[in-house]
Amino acid sequence: MSNTITLNIDGVDVTASPDETIWQVAKREGTRIPHLCYLDQPGYRADGNCRACMVEIEGERVLAASCKRTVTDGMVVKTATERAEKSRRMVFELLLADMPEQPVDAQSTFHDWLGEFSIENGRLPGKHAGDVTHALPTSQAPLHDVSNPAIAVNLDACIACNLCVRACREVQVNDVLGMAERGHHAVPVFDIHDPMGVSTCVTCGECVQACPTGALFEKTLMDDKLRTRTVEDFDNKVDSVCPFCGVGCQTTVYTKDEKIVLVDGRDGPANENRLCVKGRFGFDYAMSKERLTKPLIRRDDAPKRGDMQIDGQMLRVDDVFREATWEEAMSVAAKGLTDIRDNHGGGALAGFGSAKGSNEEAYLFQKLVRQGFGTNNVDHCTRLCHASSVSALLEGVGSGAVSAPFMDAGKADCVIVIGARPATNHPVAATYFKRAAKRGTKLVIMDPRGQELMRHAEHSLRFKPGTDVAMLNAMLHTIIEEELYDEQYIQANASGFEALREKVKDFAPEDMAEVCGIEAEQLRAVARLYANSERSIIFWGMGVSQHTHGTDNSRCLIALALITGHVGREGTGLHPLRGQNNVQGASDAGLIPMFFPDYRSVENGDIRGSMEDFWGRSLDPKKGLTVVEIMDAIHADEITGMYIMGENPAMSDPDQHHARAALAKLDHLVVQDIFLTETCWHADVVLPASAHAEKLGTFSNTNRQVQIGRPALPLPGEARMDHEIIIDLATRIGLDWSYDGVPAVYEEMRQVMKSLDYIPWERLEANESVTYPSKPDGTENWVIFDSGFSTEDGRGRIVPADLRAPDEVPDEHFPMVLTTGRVLEHWHTGSMTRRADVLDDIEPEGFAAMNPREIAKQGLEAGDMISVSTRRGTIEALLRADREVADGMVFIPFCFNEAPANALTNPMLDPYGKIPEFKFCAAKVERAVMSEAAE
Amino acid sequence: MLDRPDQGRSKRRNPAKPKGRQLDDGALANVRALLGDRSRQRDHLIEFLHLIQDEYKCLSAAHIRALAEEMRLSQVEVYEVASFYDHFDVVKEGDPEPAPLTIRVCDSVTCMMMGAEQLKAGLEAGVDANAVRVLSAPCMGGCDVAPAVRIGDREVGNATVDGLLAMLDENEISVLRPDYKKLDAYCEHGGYTQLEKLRAGDLTPQGIIDTLSDASLRGMGGAGFPTGRKWSFVRGYEGPRLMSINGDEGEPGTFKDRYYLERNPHAMFEGALIGAHCVEAERIYLYMRDEYPAVLEIMRECIAEIEAAGLAEPGFIELRRGAGAYICGEESAMLESIEGKRGLPRHRPPYIAEVGLFGRPTLNNNIETLYWVPEILANGVDWFKDQGKEGHPGLRSYSVSGRVAKPGVVKAPAGSTVNELIEMCGGMADGHTFKAYLPGGASGGILPASKGDVPLDFGGELAELNAFVGSHAIVVFSDADSMKDAAVNLIDFFTHESCGQCTPCRGGTEKMGKLLRSDGPLDEEAIRDLEDVMRDASICGLGQAAPNPVNHLLTYFREDL
Question: What would the DSSP string read from start to end of A738-806?
């Protein structure tokens, strides 16, 4: 390399790159220099403020901070002179003087380095004693702040090194922490010096992971007073992946006495040590006392009812179920299923697998349904998330997977995020978007609801709900009218452009402005920004997909990418942000009714023939029913038995009354789960299964990275591994299955999934993450479609979309728009996270959110209990005043079983993706009648 | 699961609202009304905080939240800046608002000598605390008329309790602007002709740089860097470039910039426009300390005059108001402040000539430095250079205060000694015997009278004594003064003004003050150790120089310990 320089460190000539720091070069050369404010981890800028790493540079008057100073040619550095060492020792002595006698964390970085100096404390006065120079402002958060449920703040251990601020502001870009005041009063603060627990802090814990002294520390490791670390060592430390969202953060899980006591972020490609509140502090659900530990069989005297509720007050578990042995439970489970299969045919059965399970579990589950039941009636919650996106993508580009990883936001000049709230639902992915915006990438956020990311955006388009196509077609119109499209790219790579040109002629921004509520000039500006940027990338979420026009919405996004050529290069592409940790993998593994593994059609005779050869029996030639269709088929008496693993349709399906009535109507329902979910209430047999933290398996994140989850906890009670239960059940329904552990399942799966070519189990074990498709030489294809698409002719297909209204629009009886979604702390239906103390502490109860203007207009008050009704039903919830909700709208998260949003939602489906319209239905809001208040 | 349901928490979030403090519509309307159609750019944050503070006499949490919303910042990004500067009063929900009127009593070393403490005590006893609050404040550049006080926006010299109470009664609290040489008067005597010559091509940037170099003009803010060389450096870095003017004259004992600006401000502006032209700066940011309300008004008037006369495009000179932070006199901290941030000095390298304001090459000059530029160009190299003593070329403006008969700005040859300066100030004050002096404000150390014949200039003999002349602020002490009291006053000043960024300065200043105050024998070894780490390992000059007075106290004034 020509761009190297030579310097001399401690008498040795060393070559280095000019952008390296002295500290980095010294480290490479084996010289350890103390450091406190510098964290040698991705994303952390050296700040050079603690002065623990001072070195002497020849010819300079004062010492230099080695962590910050970059090397130059000819520089002569001495790291170990008396002068440098004295400075460092004095820095430690100064800091130590202000610390409590009993360290918060005696194993912290600070105390670790302190051990290298022999410092007799006591000579310097502490800063908290006898301060005469500057009166403290009155209303400060206390020195000891335990108001956050997960994190204790002990500011007497703080050395004002600013790492927590960089963690919050630069690494996670949550912008809650800052360094306030001046001089020796300098102090890290939350918001306006508020207690952490009432601040805007999102409890990602990045500050804790960064803090070098324990001033910010996990409560799980501390004494009752939350002042001192008491868990001093761990029994085990396991590298794994996060069980929650599709981001796929790598974690390290620490256990003590067979309990998880700590989760830290690991340097995975998609998280670079970062985690969010769920990943870091939501681990304890697996250790919940509510875990199922014994198989349950429904009591003969417990009839099924769609509206039954097991809540410990009205109905207890033993009123409905009795404990059973595994042998009995499995034989009852198997018999019920085989009876139906044998008497009514496989089409009378259906299975719901789970996007929370591993790839191996998903593969085995769909194999059991197809091979064992003889039906394609197998689906999972992908149907409720991105089914419409996937159908549009398969149609347009021939693959349902993302074309580029979300980290590519950092390489893009323009990033569009539409119908997604990454800071809530993909918090670590959001850090990449915010960091990109800070570096100058133009961020465009399109969503009817406001959100935190809008603060970082160049354009925020809060369009009228349900008018996505109008808005996106107006952008397409602009790009075509102003000739901003990439003619060459279209000619080489896309078909259908002329039809699009014709279609969007009627969608001038000036005409659409009224429809979508965004000014024409802004629509044009965003279109120009997207088209003219060198690299533009689109991310979307369920705000796009969960509509009866969800597929059309995605078609518009695909068209944008295809006519501008913003796909197939780094920093460009189409990325539906996948919801669950393994929704990508479960879909890939064939846990969907129309496809075998790797999206190969069950209706294609050749493909089916090869699968029949592989599995050794004839297979159902028709595509199966989807999630909501299965519920309808139960009501129509076509399906009478189900096997549900780790899925909670009683909470997640639209029009819950209808869904629960269906579940209750089944002749035989086997549910395999870790908790007694709302779905279990309707079961005949409940099988206690394994939590993520207990099992080995692979998980594919939204970026197509396949990663390994490893067991950190033993199974509770008699609970069994999910894959063992599936195999046991398969055997009992007549299949000849035998697997030598999880890797064997993975390897079988690979035989029918070309996408996993060159990614054997050993490679995953060694690399922790491998992105498919991989080339024979091991190169990972992070970006696909660099030369053509996965369609039959290799060309992208532009499909024009028309404007269609949502299925149910507000009227005089139901004048509001109800939209549903998630909250940061709760996962999916809340079955896991509501049993995680920290998460449920932060968001403890069901709420419905409206903006303060709307609340006032309706004569309500924040904090009221209100009832929200639709044509499907009524629920009661606490009213939250949230400015982000648009006028005329009410937002309800679907995770709270005491206020279940899906009792209200409209089950009407998108015709292509079969996804229900969770994001839009007509509703009314009233103050709740306090029926129980009189008691 | 963890069986710690409450975790001892008293505060929990309210589920009826999202996390954290919610936006208040009324406060947002207030803020919008104040900001009007001003651009919401990030670097205007401190200006906007001033708007709110001026209007409401404090910064309420609701207003901070609203300003954050309006500027698309987070709350803490606003709050951390507000809390850094002395002139902002953050008031949180439930906290009392400050009294509507503030009296600031200077507690810096000269004013302390002249009875500031008794003055403050007398005031506190004499006012209604609900209507008036009395605060101590660092040097406000009134050392020649110590004790100095600011009542509202009125600067008062030679203050007395009775006089101030009378002013209170008469409501004499608004800015009192001294008469100064307006644009017309300045032009009458050849003002702005040097600028015009440069713009007409009669003078060239290189020619001017050579002239300033040959005349030995040096940076009068305290560092003494050769001005011509600085301009030449900045020109050498690829544009676009910017210029800043450091009007944050905060070094205790210094009042010469104020002296010039209150008399002949256009000379400084002409110098600045010449500098901007020479380095092709796209804009000039004039950072003026908030302790000088009268000067601030003069600056506004001058800029308006300059724009009206077409000497500069509207907006070319942007006035930025400090907010009470000595550290912002450090050039890189000042740039941070201009960018709307906390005034934390930057690490060097890179130097601001290369990576300065908004990351651009930046020319930064002190007020007085620029003030001399037109006159040097008009009168020639020798005129300036020859005013100095042998080996000390140039003219200096010494701010002399303390125990002299007639304190004030003394224009004298570079290299003058304190003995000469005392002489020029009419000798010692009656009844006082010369004992010691500060050669360079709070930072330059304390020298005994026995060192009274040392030439006061950059480097040289002073440096050998571990002292420096800095901004040429000479404070004279007499046999009536305890040098320990003086040293404690100075270290307290540094403790108060340390930005808090680096450990040696943040902890060193505070602990040195405490050690000096401690009962019993002085732990001199500990003090010396602190001195070493502060000098060797502080990020900027504040921390590096802060131990100077203590060093000299221990060296020269052992009888005062």
Answer: --SSHHHHHHHHHHT-GGGTT--HHHHHHHSEEESSB-TT--B-SS--BTB-SSTTS-EE---------
Q: Are B111 and B140 in contact (CB under 8 A)?
A: no
Question: Does B496 lie at the interface with A, CB-CB under 8 angstroms?
Answer: yes
What chain A residue is nearest to B502 in terms of C-alpha separation?
A49
Phi (first) and psi of residue B92, to 5 degrees? -90, 170
Cβ-defined contact of A133 to B75 (cutoff 8 Å)? no
CA B335 – CA A78 distance, rounded (Å): 32
Please, are residues B475 and B110 in contact by the beta-carbon 8 Å criterion?
A: yes
* Distances in whole angstroms, Cα of residue A780 to Cα of each of A248, A268, A271, A794: 17, 15, 18, 21
Q: Are B503 and A878 in contact (CB < 8 Å)?
A: no
Q: How far apart are CA A106 and CA A102, in angstroms?
A: 8
Extended strands (E) in B439-497: 447-448, 473-478
Over its C-alpha atoms, chain B yields an Rg (Å, rounded) of 24
Nearest to A134 among B76, B496, B538 (CB): B496
Phi, psi of A914 (to 5 degrees): 60, 35
Query: How far, in Å, CA of A464 to CA of A512, rounded?
Result: 11
Mutate to test the interface with B, among A47, A51, A204, A865 (most CBs of B within 10 A): A51
Mutate to test the interface with B, among A191, A288, A434 (most CBs of B within 10 A): A191
Distances B323 to A873, B86, B232, B490 between C-alpha atoms, Å: 59, 6, 32, 21
Residue B2 in contact with partner chain A when CB distance is under 8 A: yes
A287: which DSSP letter? Answer: G
Q: Is A86 within 8 Å of B529 when comparing Cβ atoms?
A: yes
Q: What's the complex ipTM?
A: 0.96
DSSP character string of A208-222? HHH-SSSSEEEGGGB
User: What does the alpha-carbon distance between residue A489 and residue B382 come to, in Å, rounded to a whole number?
Assistant: 70
In angstroms, the Cα distances linking B334 to A232, B244, B288, B331 are: 46, 9, 10, 5
pLDDT score of A120 = 85
Q: What is the pTM of this model?
A: 0.96
> Chain A residue with minimal CA distance to B545?
A62
Burial tier of B182 (Cβ tally within 10 Å: 0-12, 13-18, 19+) = middle
Alpha-carbon distance of B327 to B448, in angstroms, equals: 27
Give every CB contact of residue A715 below 8 A, 6+ residues apart in sequence.
A690, A694, A721
The rounded distance, in Å, linking the Cα atoms of B49 and A410 is: 33
Query: How close is the nearest chain B Cα to the Cα of A453, in Å?
Result: 11
Structure token digits, residue A690? 């394994």
Neighbours of A223 (CB within 10 A): 14
User: Does the distance separating the beta carbons of B514 and A125 come in below 8 Å?
Assistant: yes
% of chain A with per-residue pLDDT over 90: 95
Taking 60 as the threshold, does the pLDDT of residue A156 lie above it? Answer: yes
Report the residue from A68, A138, A181 with minimal CB separation from B95: A138
Q: Which residues contact B196 (CB under 8 A, 6 or more apart)?
A: none
Contact A69, A21 (CB under 8 A): yes
Q: Give tens-digit pLDDT for A822-847.
A: 999 999 999 999 999 999 999 999 99
Report the C-alpha gap between A721 and A715 in whole angstroms. 8
CA of A147: which chain B residue's CA is closest?
A: B9
pLDDT tens digits, one per residue of A103-135: 999 999 999 999 999 898 889 999 876 544 344
Confidence of residue A931 (pLDDT cuts 50, 70, 90): low
Give me the percent of chain A exceeding a pLDDT of 70: 98
- Per the CB < 8 A criterion, the answer to whether A310 and A681 are in contact is yes
The yes-or-no verdict on residue A374 having pLDDT over 60 is yes
Residue B536 has its nearest CB partner, among A63, A181, A225, at A63
